[in-house]
Amino acid sequence: MALEPEEVAPDVTVDEAGTGRRILVNAGYRTLADVGSKIISIALYVVMARRLGDAKFGVFSFGISFVALVTTLGDFGQDRILTREVSRRPSLLSDYLGNTLVLKITVATPALLIATGILALSGSSGETQAVVLLLGAAVILEFLMSTVFAVFQAFERMGPVPVVLITQRSVTAAAGVAALLKGADVVAVAAIYLAGAVLALLLSVGFLVRLQRPTFRVDPKRWWPLMRVAVPVGLAGVFSSVLSRVDMAMLQAYDSDATVGNYGAAYRLLETTMFLSWSVGAAVYPVFSRLSRDTQPPVGIFYERALQLVISLTLPVAVGAAVLAQPLIQLLYTEEYARAEDALLFLSPSIALFPIAYVTGYLLVSQDRQIVSTWTYGIVALENIILNLFLIPLWSLDGAALGTSVSYVIVLAITITFALRTIGAVNWTRVLLSTGLASAGAGFAMLAMRDSFFPAVVAGTVTYLTAYVVVERAVFGTRLGSVVDLVRGSAGR
């Protein structure tokens, strides 16, 4: 069994047009999964926030962030290694699958139990401890489900993903909303969340059996080689989780549950946009893994197109979140969450920064440069903690939000520098010009109509699409930019 990273063969050839179409199809599946599941989840969060109040909603928000933080070692980069190596050599599936699943359970479960014990000793309420245990069990099951998804990703067969995720979120939201309307408390909602995770894992395994029927092999002697390869990716994931979650935990220590609830309301909207990054990243990662700077085509072509695609999808959303933060928060939540408006404004740059960093991180791992991500996220996670020690006491949740955006600027600067050293130059004019100009135009259109939320969204969308197409045609001679490039597999050459 080989649990070492495979070298990317420099003479590998790829059907560029066919690969581009598969990227779009798989990105579409992942987008469908995340759009559907996020919309459904937002419905549950909104009802929960309204029915439970900001204090109890703060308990749930803290629980989600806390368990993601303490169990993060359970998702220690094994999935990305599995996808990378199996996409290169499908015969390695059975060796990676069983050991990855067992490793996750072995690492995450004790961490959850220890952390819950620490909460009890620190004097947290029994309600908070129960929520943490239930949500922690759900997160561990979702870790296992993500390993199954990594297999789908390696074989570029993402079709089952939307079925599983949308089913999970629909059942969870329907049961949760019904329970809340009947007076259920936050513990009951956490239990419903756990039941949804059980259902999702069973569904994903069912699809896996139909797709590949891998042999489930577990050998503890082989865990160390797997962990040794995965450690840099895992550490990067740990530090990334700290970066994205520690502000909520620190805010809990400095301020009230109500403040955490307001920040959670704003942060959930940021998280809702992350599916765009996940969709593109999941689709391009197997392609990145099979290519290098010396292959034909080189990996840089697909990296440039992936950046163009993900920026064109997220930059206008970031602009919209900044301009329309106040009416958006008022629409989704009650006046009780007015403090979330400025927090969303400060978080809005992260909506555009995170996707670029995410795709670039995938590129670095695919080229066996994962150690760059490890050091980058480690340094920036420490920077974020230190920055929050100053910003949160000064500006509370607004300081936490500002710290998040500043940290992603630093991540982006470091990772892109190393990515360009690995793959060569990128045509930044091609990547940024159309989207930047179109997003600026959309921002002015929304600003002029910001007192009327839905008309402002319509005006911004129409302005963005029109300006984007005009610039693409005038400057680059294409109609839909990166989408056409990916399908045709010819532009940018």
Model description:
The protein is mainly α. The protein has one domain. The chain is 82% helix and 0% strand. The protein is globular and about 60 Å long. The relative contact order is 0.13. The C terminus is likely disordered.
Our estimate of the beta-strand percent is: under 5%
What is the residue-averaged pLDDT? 87
Largest sheet: none
Count of beta strands: 0
Distance between the termini: 39 Å
Total domains: 1
SSE string, helices as H and strands as E: HHHHHHHHHHHHHHHH
Would you tell me the structural class of the helices and strands?
mainly alpha
- What's the shape? globular
Rounded Rg: 22 Å
Q: Which regions contain 5 or more consecutive residues with pLDDT less than 50? A: 5-12, 486-493
Helix content: over 70%
Number of helices: 16
Distinctive features:
493 residues; mainly alpha; 0% strand; disordered C terminus
Can I get a quick summary?
The chain is mostly helical.
List the helices and strands and how they pair.
Layout: H1 16-70, H2 78-88, H3 93-121, H4 126-154, H5 160-181, H6 186-211, H7 223-254, H8 257-273, H9 275-290, H10 299-323, H11 325-332, H12 340-366, H13 370-423, H14 428-448, H15 453-476, H16 482-488
Helix pairs in contact: 1-4, 1-5, 1-7, 1-8, 1-9, 1-16, 2-3, 2-4, 2-9, 3-4, 4-6, 5-6, 7-13, 8-12, 8-13, 9-10, 9-12, 10-12, 10-14, 10-16, 11-12, 12-13, 14-15
